[in-house]
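Troubleshooting: if your tokenizer reports a length mismatch, compare your output against this known-good record of 292 residues.
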Amino acid sequence: MNAFSNTAAVAPAFPAASDERLLIPPAVEPCKTGTRRLALGRTIPFGALIGPALLLVIWSIGSIAGLIDPRTLPAPWSVVGTAIDLIAEGKLQHHLTTSAWRAAQGLVFGILIGTILALISGLSRLGEAIIDGPVQIKRAIPTLALIPLLMLWFGIGEGMKVTAIALAVLIPIYIQTHSSLRSIDSRYVELAQTLRMGYREFIREVILPGALPGFFLGLRFAVTYAWLSLVVVEQVNATSGIGYMIDLARNYGQTDIIIVGLVVYALLGLASDGIVRFFQERSLAWRRTLAD
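Known-good structure output:
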């Protein structure tokens, strides 16, 4: 009895069941805020405007301090004044309407053709064997390098310009959509077979939602490529359009008008990308990503 008492006295006292958490070292305890630290954080209000605003501030400071030659790069207020004059004369609206119509036509045709080709190639081995090779060849050849050949085929009118834009647009649509189709997890296919889905239902419920992320990514590239191609094609026997206005201003050394045209292109690109991102967020609201 005495020996047992001595042993019990020497043995360390163990905590009660309610104090078992004291046995866990602090380093082992789960960090409740770990997810928040690894995430991107809250969205910055009007964050997309911070970069352009910073460039505008640097441009203005450089113009005021005399660090920027106005013959090379006019001050922002000079460019704004030129834009107001062009609007008052109706020239800017006329050129903008023409350019927007050309870009819209090329964008629509490019999206339709690129999506159809991606679906055929992505859902069929035979379709991929027939389509993917020529598309990859076109991908390796810059669209601008095809303009001389397109001029021989379609002349120098609107058909050539719209075709060049469509060729530039369909590549990113095809590549991204095709990649998304082939990246769909095979477990979804097995699940669809288990549920005895029909082919049309499988396409509607599994394939199309799975391809949407890649399609929207390709669409963001496509709208950018449409405006880039427009700059070049409007300098080929054009009588109107923003590209024509820029090329005409280059001949007369009117740097301020060139800057106005570039700013218009930038605004069009940002606006079109914003529209695509808006529909992307609405269509892919079911996804949880790092940006959420």
